[in-house]
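Collaborator request log, item 7. Partner lab (contact: R.S.) asked for a structural prediction of NAD-dependent protein deacylase to inform their binding assays.
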Amino acid sequence: MPANKISTIASLKNKKALKIVVLTGAGISAESGIKTFRDNNGLWENHSVEEVATPEGFAANPGLVYRFYNERRQQLLSPSIKPNEAHNALAKLEQGLGNNVVVVTQNVDNLHERAGNKNVIHMHGELLSVKCPQSNKSIYTESNTDATMLCECCKTPNSLRPDIVWFGEVPYHMDRIEQHLYQADIFVSIGTSGNVYPAAGFVSFANSCGAHTVELNLEPSETESQFEEKIHGPASVIVPQFVE
Ligand code: BJW
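Returned to partner:
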């Protein structure tokens, strides 16, 4: 393996069929002003995970869960929240390599799309979307939501829920993600703690499929030892260095 890891991707980029799968987590959006999950003693804005990010929590106190997501949706829409240099670098990478770059994000924000990435898979859902539990359709919204909202798609008085994959639920697009990982030449994981499955298992799958695996994170993650290369530092610095 070359000593200068940063030049590795640059040289591989010249290969015609290079396929790069990028997994992102909360760390890539931290410098845009969106808090990560586990930097706060397991509390999200003073709410426990069980209260706000499980189907049981939603059933027990839907009002709290709607409020929690309404606040986060409004935060995402505020003018101060913008893509940072790490998002921009990934957008540039896709501009250069087209569909050979896919971003699989655990994040529910839209900062990859706002930076310019088109090939983005949201495996944990999206803040700017609600879901009809009956038809499973996702509906874009920038508005606050609550239990009185009627479902437009199936025209029944069915309360729409946040379009978020909570603990105990199956993440979205797993078949597509597995296909991409199977074909990957390089798997890059950015800004994720490696605490939450199935995403935490992607490095092991990518390794077994023969991909070159790289971790870019502020600090060593839980799965750090499984990566062939690791570069630690703030995403806004190390991601542009790595991909450009
Ligand atoms: C920086 C930085 C900077 C900071 N620059 N870096 C026991 C064993 C194994 C699994 C399980 C188990 N018990 C239960 C499970 C399953 C469970 C799970 O994994 N639990 C663990 C806690 C153990 N998983 C599930 O339930 C999932 N579903 C599932 O497994 O279904 C079964 C199935 C799967 C596949 C096929 C068929 C069936 C669903 C998981 C849903 C996760 N949802 C959440 C909540 C979304 C709600 C919301 O946003 O409101 O998604 S949890 C939360 O964690 C969120 C995130 O996407 C996810 C990952 O967090 P992430 O992104 O890694 O953030 P952090 O905060 O943890 O880390 C940030 C990192 O950035 C840190 O390392 C920092 O150092 C770094 N950083 N600043 C670079 N500037």
